[in-house]
Design brief:
The structure is a single chain. The chain is of the alpha/beta class. Helix content is 31%, strand content 18%. An eight-stranded mixed beta sheet has the order 3-4-5-2-6-7-1-8, with helices on both faces. It has a seven-stranded mixed beta sheet with strand order 9-15-12-11-10-13-14. Helix 12 packs across helix 14. The protein starts with 11 loop residues before the first helix and ends with a helix.
């Protein structure tokens, strides 16, 4: 049975998205780029072309799923695919099946455990956590010979998944097991969506009227700023500098954030003006205290005055009954405990990051401290406590927490080097002149 499916008229960016064949394909960046239309068309075309294909289309919440995809697909696939409301799926005449789902809470992802899909699409991927995305990749598998598994993503800057989407598709910073050739990003902006511009030309003016930070994110698709970003003053051009030798007389110190899941240690130094330079970092997962101390000391110069740590490390460990500060000290790294009041600490950090009248911040970070540079601009406001940083995604908070503890310690400015006093010039006496004359040439 043959069916006729009206694909419509895709714009050039949408065509690039349709033609892409990588393992992971992302589309979007700015608002108004035609993402939802493109993902529905792509999945429907795949379902019609490949018999018995299994496809999954996800949004974060059920209301979003219904408004953005369920209702439009019921119209677009009317007479082409059969819809079943019990499992929100469309079955095509060739046996292909497109299922629609959502993951409102973190645990909702486990409803797909054990299921296999040839294609998985995450609409507004930045609304999903990295853990959810990684779990879904385990469901994206197939034994077919005529089709290799693929995942599609549409996205805008911001929200809880901003960090992992930016890392994979914008920064292209890959971990072990991730292959650059598997990831393709197709940027799209409102100017690419000619259908929207013709139907709703004032939409561009709406985006242009946004505050500067939101305009950069929603109109320009700038992934370095987004709605909800905590430190909007962050400017990599000013906060990040090339490494230089730290002068021997500068005060040096360390700060740690420690948990069994992740250790973050930062090394800092203060100059004569009280400015702070973060010149080294060490971040590692699944490390016990004795190994953490060993690694920190191996990376230190021996000139560090102290190591700042949070007050909660003074609590007794559930495993040993001994305060972790005591364990650190026994292993050779005594800690200087600082207040870890979150809101006051973040406000203090904002002051250090603020660009002053001379065009420079008081805090600068060596370019080699990649994790801190990556994590700081990704921190977001907590939805329930806007003055606090959101604790999710948790994997980006460790290095900033260590920095917060360091700045809470309020390291002193380095004392200027002493200058040897210079005696005022006095003409030589007659006796000195006479002695010099008679000793000439001897």
């Amino acid at each position: 049975m043959s069916v006729v499916y009206d694909v419509g008229k895709p714009n050039p960016r949408q065509l690039d998205f349709f033609r892409a064949r990588a393992r992971h394909i992302a589309y979007g960046g700015a608002r108004g780029g035609g993402k939802s239309w493109a993902i529905r068309r792509k999945l429907s075309m795949l379902a019609l072309y490949y018999p018995n294909l299994r496809l999954l289309l996800l949004r974060r919440t059920l209301p979003e799923l219904k408004e953005n995809h369920l209702l439009p697909l019921q119209q677009e696939l009317h007479g082409i695919a059969t819809y079943r409301d019990s499992d929100k799926s469309f079955t095509f005449p060739n046996g292909s099946r497109l299922k629609l789902g959502y993951c409102d809470s973190e645990s909702d992802i486990f409803q797909y455990q054990g299921q296999e899909y040839d294609v998985i699409a995450m609409e507004e991927a930045t609304h999903f956590t990295e853990a959810q995305q990684q779990f879904l990749t385990t469901c994206n598998r197939s034994t077919r010979k005529d089709f290799t598994p693929r995942m599609y993503y549409t996205c805008n800057p911001g929200n809880v998944g901003h960090a992992w989407v930016k890392r994979l598709f914008i920064d292209r910073d890959y971990r072990e097991g991730e292959h650059p050739e598997d990831y393709v990003f197709i940027p799209a902006k409102v100017w690419d969506n000619t259908v929207l511009l013709e139907a709703n030309p004032e939409y561009v003016r709406t985006l242009e009227a946004l505050p500067p930070e939101l305009r950069r994110a929603h109109l320009d698709g700038d992934w370095n700023v987004f709605a909800g970003q905590f430190f909007t003053s962050w400017d990599e051009r000013k906060h990040v500098i090339d490494p230089f030798p730290i002068p021997d007389h500068w005060l040096r110190f360390r700060a740690i954030d420690y948990g069994l899941d992740r250790l973050a240690c930062l090394w800092g130094a203060s100059d004569e003006g009280g400015n702070i330079y973060i010149y080294n970092e060490w971040c590692i997962s699944d490390t016990i205290i004795s190994d953490a101390v060993k690694g920190i000391l191996e990376r230190s110069t021996g000139r560090e005055l102290c190591t700042y740590g949070p007050k909660d490390l003074t609590a007794r460990s559930r495993e040993t009954g001994v305060p972790r500060t005591e364990t650190f000290a026994m292993c050779g790294l005594p800690l200087t405990v600082v207040s870890n009041t979150r809101i006051a600490g973040w406000n203090n950090m904002a002051e250090w990051l603020k660009i002053r009248e001379n065009g420079q911040p008081r805090l600068r970070i060596f370019r080699t401290c990649r994790e801190l540079i990556h994590c700081l601009p990704l921190l977001q406001h907590d939805e329930k406590k806007p003055d606090d940083v959101a604790i999710e995604p948790h994997n980006i908070t460790h290095a900033p927490d260590a920095l917060r503890y360091m700045l809470d310690g309020r390291p002193l400015a380095t004392e200027p080097l002493p200058v040897e006093p210079v005696s005022p010039f006095a003409p030589p006496t007659f006796e000195e002149q006479e002695s010099s004359f008679f000793n000439f040439g001897t």
